[in-house]
Structure formats: C-alpha cells, structure tokens
Amino acid sequence: RDAQACIAKQASRKNLNAFISLAEKTAVLKAAEDADRGSVQGPLAGRLIGVKDNISTSDLPTTCASGILQKYTSPYDATVISKLRQAGGIVAGKTNLDEFGMGSHSKHSFFGPVVQENGDNTMRSVGGSSGGSAAAVATGQCWAALGTDTGGSVRLPAAYTGIVGFKPSYGLLSRWGVVAYANSLDTVGILSQSSVDSKQIFDVLSGYDPRDPTSLPKSTRARISKFAGKRFQRGPLRIGVPAEYNITTLSPTVHSSWISTLSYLQAQGHTIHHVFLPTTKQALSAYYVLAPAEASSNLAKYDGVRFGTRAEGPDGATSVLFSATRGQGFGDEVKRRILLGAYTLSADAIDNYFIQAQKVRRLVQRDFDKAFRSPNPLHEEEIDSGEATENEGVDVLVCPTAPTLTPTIEDLDAQNPLDAYKNDVFTVPASLAGLPAISIPVTVPEANEKVGIQVIGQFGHDELVLDIGSIIE
Ligand code: GLN
Question: Which of 53, 181, 287, 338 to mutate to test the pocket of ligand 1 (most atoms within 8 A of CB)?
Fold first, then answer.
C-alpha cells in the first residue's frame, strides 16, 4: 500500500536527514506486494513503518545516533519490532534522533541534524528526540513510525511537524530491546497522521512481555479495564484545564488554539473545568535531575570493551581506554547529561538533588491523581478493596504540547542548553507520572500553522486519550 510512493519520497526528501539507514528497497517492495496479494495478513499488512534508531532491529544497525554505536547491529529484534512484523508491518528504516534520545530538536546526532522546510528556503526544527520519525511521517516517507518518549520526545516532534504523537502509559508497551535512556521514564511511542492509525499500532504493540521486568502484568491490565475506556457510554466528558500551564511565555497563537480546542469540545457537549496541578512548576527541574541520573548510570556500559567502538591507540582494561573511547564516542549533549547525572548522584549532592527530585515526582503524581475522576489503577489495594471510587475530578486534561510555535534553525542557534530544556515544560509532568498523553495537530487558520494540543489521561486510560484525540483532530 503506497510503498512505492514512500520509497520515492525517501529519495526526494533525503535532504531532511530523517533516516540513518533504510531497509533494502527490493525486499520492502516484495513484502508490500505480498501484502497486496493477500499472502501476508494482519492489521498492519503492507504498512511501511519507520523505527527510531534506538530500538533494536536484527536486520539494520541500531546506532542511537551516537558515534559510540555507529557500527553496532543488534543480534535480535526488540519485542515491539517482532510484534510489528507479526502483524504484517514492514520496517522502512531506522530514523534519526538526538543521541540516545537526549535533546528536543534532533540536532545532537552523530549523523547530522534532522530538519524540515519552512516554505521560504529556511529550515525549521522538527523537535526531538524522535525528530527523524516525525519528519519521515510528516513528509510521507513512511506510513507511521515508532519513537521513544522519556520526557516528550514523541509529543514534541509531533507538535512541531503537525502530526499525531502518542505516548502510552508507562509499562503497556515492552521496552525489551529498546536502548535505555532513563528506564523509569522511557516509553515506546507512536507517530502517525491520525489517532486512528496510532490506535491500530497501539493495539498491535500493547501486551505483557515477560522479558521486560517493568511490563505491566495481566492482573494490572485487568484492573485498568475495570475503570478505563467506558467514558463515552456514560455521556459528556469532564475536560480539565490546568491553570499552571497558562504561563506568561506562552505564545499567543498557541494560547488561541488551546482556547479554540476547548470551545470545540464544549460545543460537542463536554464540560470544561479548571484544575490545579501545583507541582507543575517543579516538574521540569525534577525531570532534568532524574533523567540524567539514570542516563549516567545506563551509559556506563559503553566503554569500548563490552559495547561500541573502541578508541584507537590505548589498550587494556584501563581508565585510559575508557576515557579515550567515551571522550571520542559521545557527543557534547550526552557528556553534559553524564556529568549532570554523576554529580547529582554523588555523595555530597544526592540529598539536595536526586532525593528531592524523587519527592517532587511523587507530588506530581499525587497532583494528577487528585485531578482525575478515576482512581489510579496502580494503587492496587485501594481498588481491590473497593475503597477507591470515582470522585468529582475530570476525565482528561487538555493543554498545549509546547509553549511556542515551531522554532526556526536560526532561533535554535541563539539558544543555550537550558532554553532547549524549557521546551519540555508541558510534556515532562505526564512522563514523571507515567500517564498516557497524545499531541494532536490543531490548525490555526489566521497563522497558517499547526499547533500541538495535548490530551493527558489517568494511568491506563490510553483508549480514551486516543478517542479524544480523534475528536479534536
Ligand atoms: N528533551 C528531553 C530530554 O532531552 C526528552 C527526551 C526524550 O523524551 N527522549 O531529555
């Protein structure tokens, strides 16, 4: 189905740098023909799907856009890739990203930045870190793509490229074979042209995986379906508008598209309610303590001995070899995260940074639980004892995905690392709480732009979030 058209686009939009490696053309076309003839079946039969290059595939390299893994090919497929293939999906290629998923503009890549055209010969950011996946879907180089979202890396690129980006609840999709950035936050996410397409892929990928210790077991999945997903049968939804997201630096165009989305939902019969998430202000800082801390520990294994390219010259298992390998192999942003993480975990700093950030994380989770009508299915005892009941809270939250419109490459050149971190202010709270969240492109006629509007649901309410996404779309 349109495989030929995707392949043509991959050639004509090569300048965007969306892919690091492409699947072999004849094999892709043959697989697509098999699907057309009906000899391959499944919900994704014949669909070309781009895969972020931090998700392991046995037939193409998995570089994480890092110099240190530039020649690495995994001996196995990640669980999500096996599931895609079983459903008839075709891996189109591996998409470019910020090295190891660290960044918000897909410019920190060993293979060069990903960009999108602005229409006037200038270039714009595609967002990050799953920017290659977003650019590939937005320009028709594949039907849909997988990304990973640790603190917004699927939602932000979707918002900046005008497509749909869905981050499921933490633990629903297997992380086995997904290269870890920050384990407690990492989720596989989906980039597509519509919520319906995302749902189709989500249904294929969601499931318990015994090889991933954080995969939600069947009992939790059963508890989720007890409360989630039945909203539409019960009449109008209660839509929450978090006051803390109305920040002074919010772009006026983003603000007006937020308001028009809320008016539209109201016109459909749903009701709008103000909610308060007081810890939102601390969430970003907590994220940028926790994520680098986990990263510094995860990246310790790239030492030139067990994984990755080894520096020329020094030999033997000495610190000289390690530091030469890591010094040459990692890019600047990754080094910055390792330093940050190693510092906040150090004996002198851990109490003031890491421990505090973990406390903030609990408060962020509590804010959300207070706001939602449904109880959190992770609070097993309360639910199983029948203690948990629905309250006067809201069904979902609706807010912008990013505070500004898509920045130009020129804008980025004027930014420091902290400015880039600030882009994630609206996406990290849902990540800290593990909640499902989707970014939907909303057209703003007066600005000739698409703005990403985010829908966040209670843990496990992934289907509701996808359904509301398709109402807004
Ligand atoms: N921009 C955030 C970071 O750099 C989010 C990254 C992600 O979700 N992978 O950490």
Answer: 181
Show contacts of 34-38: CB within 8 Å, 24+ apart. Answer: 35/1, 35/88, 35/90, 36/1
Tell which CATH architecture fits domain 226-285+353-472: Alpha-Beta Complex (3.90)
Q: What spacing in Å lies between the alpha carbon of 166 and ligand 1's midpoint?
A: 15
Active site residues: 52, 129, 153
- Enumerate residues lining ligand 1, CB below 6 A: 101-104, 129, 148-153, 181, 291, 424
Ligand 1 center to residue 129 CA distance, Å? 6
In this chain, the answer to whether the domains covering 3-220 and 226-285+353-472 adopt an identical fold is: yes
Q: Which of 66, 106, 150, 190 to mutate to test the pocket of ligand 1 (most atoms within 8 A of CB)?
A: 150
pLDDT beneath 70: ranges in the chain: 1, 229-234, 314-318, 381-384, 386-391
Q: Where are the domains of the chain?
A: 3-220, 226-285+353-472
**Which of ligand 1's atoms lies nearest the C-alpha of 288?**
10
pLDDT digits (tens, 9 = 90+) for 177-204: 999 999 999 999 999 999 999 999 999 9
Mutational pocket test of ligand 1: of 97, 153, 166, the residue with most ligand atoms within 8 Å of the beta carbon: 153
What superfamily in CATH does domain 3-220 come from? Amidase signature (AS) domain (3.90.1300.10)
Nearest CA to ligand 1 atom 5: 151
Residues contacting 204, CB < 8 A, separation 6+: 42, 43, 44, 83, 84, 87, 89
Give the integer Cα–Cα distance in Å for 2 and 143: 9
Cα 229 to averaged position of ligand 1 atoms, centre (Å) = 29
> What pLDDT, on the 0 to 100 scale, is given for residue 233?
60
Cα–ligand 1 centroid distance for 427 (angstroms): 9
